[in-house]
Amino acid sequence: MKIACFSLIAVLAICTLAAAQSPDEIVRSPKVRKALEFIRTVEAETIEEQIRTAEIPAPTFKEGKRAEYYRKRFSELGLAKVRIDAAGNVIGERPGSDPTKTLVIAAHLDTVFPEGTDVKVKREGSILTGPGIGDDARGLAVMLAVIRALKEAKIQTRDNIIFVADVAEEGLGNLAGVGHLVKEELKGGITNFIGLDASGFDVVQREIGSNRYRVTFRGPGGHSYFEFGRPSAIHALGRAIDSISKLSVPSDPRTTYNVGKVEGGTTVNSIAQTASMEVDLRSISAAELAKLDASFRKAVETALNEENDARKDAARLTVDIQLIGERPVGLQAPDAPIVQKVLVADKALGIRSNLTASSTDSGMPMRFGIPSVTIGTGGKWQGMHSVGESFDMTDSYRGTQRVLLALLAVAGTK
Predict the structure, then answer these.
(1) pTM (predicted TM-score)
(2) Among 6, 206, 293, 362, which residue's CB has the most CB atoms within a 10 Å radius?
């Protein structure tokens, strides 16, 4: 059977690699080759699904409308036990021949954009532009295409496959959707986990840990003229931000900080009673993240003391440091079977894998010792988390093929 855009060399590579590393011999199957060709031929439909998904607003914690759409699509595609769980995740199952093994394939429903954002997608040549068009409308659309391909080619896997469109991955969602899966809905029942949430041919096998805080300074406030000399919550906040901006962090292991949001004060002629900031601390090293955390706390306390000491008035400020988000540092070693199987699938397709670090859903199952990885779904993203986010569709079908082969390499066939 002729497979357009899927070279004989790639097919032979599949055979050679599969024979060398069981259970990857599954990729020699004519059914698998049929599925790969199907994916290529329906890529235009996958792109339309991607656009349709992106144009359904889904801010974190308000994913209901998009979730309902994916519940409907899972049912239409014949998945079993389709449901929306207590956290809001959409779940559909494709039974395998071995009920003791389960692979979860997940893509997240939520976006970083608030209600009211214009989510209309614009198309210019091979470029799609719109909020969330890549992150993670692409992952969601690819998941549907893979379900279609498995059904079209009548492929039965060894492992059960549970497809999940999960909630609360972004921002202060703190991976709550996948956390519920791991700790409640599918507790003890996940053998492997693959997230679909990265650009091109990334393989996210290292999860960036983060601590996120809301810091609030409080004081009595007062009139800017008559109570001049009282400590100001905003002045203290400014001192803290200045100190944080001067913190020294290593480039290897990569460690970062960011003050992403500030609030406070009431009027221009009032000494601020309250002022707050939200701070993001990140590192791929747990030890470096702990060091940064300690330096951040010291900067805040020093700012408080400096502002209080600088004012003659007896009134004093206080500060509250509240943890509002925590993501685990995680590592799936490059030689881990789940990573190696993705790399084998990539090599068979002539894809150059890009091992990288990010902060994705796979960090949560990783925390609980579940073999986990997040992979890119083809195309090329730019401007992620901006209203100008774009997706280059050039040869994007290769990403969907890659997901199918990775799934089969991990889940095996009957």
Answers:
(1) 0.88
(2) 362
